[in-house]
């Protein structure tokens, strides 16, 4: 059981949870709340563009340098996603940290994406589906928010009572480090457990397809 950075080597066969609070996996969770069917996560914007050329009916979301590329349908913003028309649609997501970190773990016993909005559901899904399996929690960013979320999730998985106030404070500290990037998305990023599902990944051909699974 460990908390590591995005580029750490992770032992195959563990449950891997990849965390990006500001903002990739908060945006993904809001997309599922809006009725998205699935989200295919890729390692780069160019990989996302290539996949959309193959699947032109899919929406392309994400960021480069924190900003939405002009040819993307939506950016990496939970606020923007909260009004997006994505019901029944399949999405492709490409971000600097979150999706890039997710695709690095093809040999996990289970692979999940998480942020504060679905942290408890993630813990419940792991406990119900992989009891006794070691876990690794991967912080994709260098800010305080991912470490705070990982610490909170680690506490839930160990059966302790972690501090929600500490989690929210950590996200706030991380947002201050991000500056303007967090902006109006921060209320979504700090809305702990608003989503009642885990985001479980299936790995294929260098990409990870996320589905929302009740937690």
Q: How would you describe this structure to a colleague?
A:
The chain has 215 residues and is of the alpha/beta class. The protein has one domain (2-214): Alpha-Beta Complex (putative 2-phosphosulfolactate phosphatase). Helix content is 34%, strand content 23%. The chain is built from 8 helices and 9 strands. Strands 1-7-2-6-8-9-3-5-4 form a 9-stranded mixed sheet. β8 and β9 (207-214) form a beta hairpin. α5 (119-129) packs parallel to α6 and α6 runs antiparallel to α7 (164-178). It is globular. The two termini are 20 Å apart. The mean pLDDT is 96.
Features:
nine-stranded mixed β-sheet, 9 strands, 215 residues, putative 2-phosphosulfolactate phosphatase, alpha/beta, globular
What fraction strand?
Answer: 15-25%
- Biggest sheet: strands side by side, in what order? 1-7-2-6-8-9-3-5-4
The CATH class assignment is: Alpha Beta
Q: What's the tally of helices?
A: 8
CATH architecture: Alpha-Beta Complex
Runs in which pLDDT lies below 50 for 5 or more consecutive residues are none
Largest sheet properties: 9 strands, mixed
Oligomer description: single chain
SSE order, as H and E? EEHEHEHEHEHEHHHEE
Q: How far is it from the N-terminal to the C-terminal residue, by CA? A: 20 Å
What is the alpha-carbon Rg in Å? 15 Å
- Averaged pLDDT: 96
Total domain units: 1
SSE layout and pairings?
Elements lengths: L1 E4 L9 E5 L4 H10 L4 E5 L2 H10 L4 E4 L15 H4 L8 E5 L3 H5 L7 E5 L4 H11 L5 E5 L4 H14 L6 H15 L7 H4 L7 E8 L2 E8 L1
Parallel strand pairs: 1-7, 2-6, 2-7, 3-5, 4-5
Antiparallel strand pairs: 3-9, 6-8, 8-9
